[in-house]
Write a structure and sequence with these properties.
Elements lengths: L1 H14 L7 H28 L26 E8 L5 E8 L15 H6 L14 H31 L3 H22 L4 H11 L10 H4 L6 E3 L4 E3 L5 H28 L7 H8 L30 H40 L4 H30 L3 H9 L2 E7 L6 H15 L3 E7 L9 E5 L2 E8 L1 H4 L4 H4 L4 E9 L4 H9 L2 H32 L2 H21 L7 H13 L3 E5 L6 H17 L7 H11 L2 H9 L8 H6 L18
């Protein structure tokens, strides 16, 4: 997906034509970065494809570049916890465990992504927040693409209405086309599009054959633009002429449309036209206009293929076809001008950004890891709740809450890892999930489309489970992702950071947790409203418990406690109550993560399954010494031991300490 986006950006830059300095130098430097990124991604893909059995990255391989492992998540697993009560009731909880989303191979000398980007005056276009100019440009580009598709759909609607002699539908389609065209014309003259067009006009002021008319200079080859299927003529920079021509063509289309409406109203019965009958005898089976087109492609300058059920439609269609085709060509020219100006603005933002290539490669590496963890968490949560009507309704109406729990410290390299992870978790809010049915029983793999700032992930689901989904999800509607990251260091590094009293170290933890609390609070309020709307007595109880938990969480988040693990445990409980996905991580997802998920499991037993307090510690030690986490250590480092020494044990909170005999001081992490 990233390589495809870079290729599209290269085509966008080429479409700008010749630019004056310094714009020419900026775009050329960005072109070099983009070509380099594509080459790097291709080498990574080749390395991964050459090792098809490489599907797991152990913690000891965090820093190796071999086989493109920088793009693989570290030690990714699902910790599944199933409880069978005495009455035969079974419940399953899933926690995804994964190493921190961090670019270990590039180091942390300058910090992680959050610090690297925040230290610069400008941000790369793909990483900007919702209040930035880059976000505005992306929103406009999305609206332009939507406008193009809507106009293409209206064209089909217009011809079908004529084919079926539906006067009201024909008039409605014509009015909608007129409204969309007028809106497009108006957008050209509004800020920020008009300003971007003016800047691009200035960038081309000193280029050859710039603003001379076609009559004087002829049509240059750079005025031909590839639209995906064909070349179309776009005289790019004479905007006023395009607007005037578009308005004239719109009036012509409306005039012809009125004539067709009068003909449709006056025609009470089908007419037999001998000449047209002879025409259809040449292709009696098709009954289509002799203009083969692909309706799935929203190319405005093309005419649709419309089935003719009555001979008179042939005359109407070809009567309006020339003026409608000209109108759509002119509208396409305006859309191209606006798209080029927005793309030009985004290119200039990235061209001015220092070390753009290194930031993008780091971003792609970190996001690849984060997307894998998100897909794992969502799928495991969906499989366990596919018959849970509340969960499915939540996906449909609110979205999916992904709760990331970090045990990284704010000391040394781990702070850089935390900055990488914080940035990646925030960017996951730009992801939309789509559930697709598997084909031929092959579960397949998730697929990505879109761009770095608007990712669409398609996740396959078995047919038996797919049928349980609401109709909206079965037809492909997206699931919005909402992410929160709550972090609390618990190791000796955090102890040193707390003793150091350097505000910037501990402040990042506070910023992350307080920002995530606001998102959590918003999601919980939406979930409570959903519970009240459904009206179940059990859900009403949940709706009353959640505000109490939120109030406790707010107190913990805004407190000045060191190693505040109570905050983490409250977040876990709230996430389970709103059917969210749980992801826990530390540097390698092996030692501290093992202590966290086993504690979480025992808390579930105590809270929901009446585990006596007297045997709580015994159950906790048993899970850590006989459960799956020591197997995870063996898989990663070849030893069934946690990597803790005596000094580290003294720094860990009491409930996060492993039982005797399960740890070793010389174990590699």
């Amino acid at each position: 997906m990233a390589s495809q986006e870079d290729r599209c950006r290269i085509n966008d830059i080429i479409a700008f034509g010749e630019l004056a300095a310094p714009w020419h130098a900026n775009t050329q430097s960005l072109l070099g970065y983009l070509f380099s990124n594509i080459g790097e991604h291709q080498r990574t893909i080749s390395e991964l494809e050459s090792e098809p059995e490489l599907f797991f990255k152990a913690s000891i391989h965090k820093k190796t570049k071999k086989h493109g492992t920088a793009f693989l998540p570290t030690n990714l697993h699902v910790q599944r916890f199933k409880v069978l009560d005495t009455d035969g009731q079974a419940s399953t909880r899933n926690v995804t465990t994964v190493g921190a989303f961090a670019c270990h191979v590039r180091g942390f000398r300058q910090g992680g992504l959050h610090k690297i980007i925040a230290d610069n005056v400008c941000w790369p276009s793909f990483a900007s927040d919702h209040d930035s100019a880059a976000h505005t440009c992306r929103v406009i580009l999305k609206k332009l693409a939507t406008m193009r598709q809507q106009l293409a759909d209206l064209r089909v609607k217009l011809f079908k209405a004529a084919a079926n002699r539906k006067t009201e539908q024909f008039s409605s389609a014509l009015c909608e086309i007129s409204s969309k065209v007028q809106q497009t014309v108006a957008d050209c003259t509004k800020s920020p599009i008009s300003g971007a067009i003016q800047i691009m006009k200035e960038a081309r002021t000193h280029s050859a054959t710039e603003y001379q008319s076609e009559e004087d200079k002829g049509v240059s080859s750079q005025d031909w633009v590839w639209d995906g299927m064909d070349y179309i003529l776009v005289s790019k920079w004479n905007l006023e002429k395009h607007i005037q021509k578009t308005q004239e063509q719109l009036m012509a289309v409306l005039g012809v449309g009125r004539e067709i409406e009068e003909s449709l109203n006056s025609m009470l019965a089908p007419r037999n036209d001998i000449g047209l009958s002879q025409f259809f005898e040449k292709s009696p089976r098709t009954g289509h206009l002799p203009l083969p087109r692909n309706l799935s492609q929203p190319n405005l300058h093309r005419s649709p293929s419309v089935s003719l059920r009555r001979p008179g439609v042939f005359c109407w269609s070809f009567k309006i076809l020339p003026s409608l085709t000209s109108l759509y060509q002119d509208v396409e020219s305006l859309l191209k001008i606006m798209e080029n100006s927005m793309n030009f603005s985004l290119v200039q933002m990235d061209a001015h950004y220092p070390d753009f290539e290194q930031v993008v490669l780091r971003y792609d590496s970190v996001m690849s890891q984060a997307l894998a963890a998100l897909a794992t968490s969502f799928c495991s949560t969906l499989w366990s709740n596919v018959t849970n009507k509340v969960f499915l309704r939540m996906l449909q109406d609110i979205g999916f809450l992904a709760h990331f729990e970090s045990l990284l410290s704010t000391q040394g390299h781990e702070q850089g890892m935390l900055e990488d992870m914080w940035f990646a978790v925030r960017q996951l809010n730009n992801v939309t999930l789509h559930i697709v049915q598997v084909e031929n029983g092959n579960l397949g793999e998730p697929t990505l489309t879109g761009s770095r700032c608007d990712i669409h992930m398609s996740l396959p689901l078995q047919e038996s489970l797919f049928d349980e989904l609401p109709q909206s999800l079965r037809r492909g509607d997206g699931v919005r992702v909402r992410t929160v990251l709550f972090t609390q260091g618990i190791n000796e590094g955090q102890t040193l950071s707390d003793l150091n009293f350097v505000s910037q170290h501990s402040q990042i933890q506070a910023d992350i947790n307080q920002g995530s609390y606001r998102i959590m609070e918003e999601f919980v309020q939406c979930f409570r409203a959903l519970c009240i709307d459904i009206g179940s007595a059990k859900l009403a109880v949940e709706a009353n418990i959640l505000p109490v938990l939120l109030e406790q969480l707010a107190e913990e988040v805004h407190s000045n406690k060191t190693k505040n693990v109570e905050m983490l445990q409250l977040c876990e409980e709230i996430t389970y109550r709103v059917n969210g996905g749980r992801i826990t991580s530390c540097k390698s997802a092996k030692d501290r993560t093992a202590m966290a998920v086993t504690l979480e499991q025992c808390n579930i037993l105590r809270r929901d399954h009446a585990l006596p307090e007297t045997v709580f510690q015994q159950a906790l030690d048993s899970m850590r010494s006989r459960g799956t986490r020591l197997h995870n250590c063996m898989k990663n480092i070849g030893h069934r031991q946690y990597a803790f020494n005596s000094f580290q044990l003294k720094c860990l909170p009491a409930k996060y300490c492993p039982p005797p005999g399960t740890y070793g001081k010389k174990v590699q992490t």
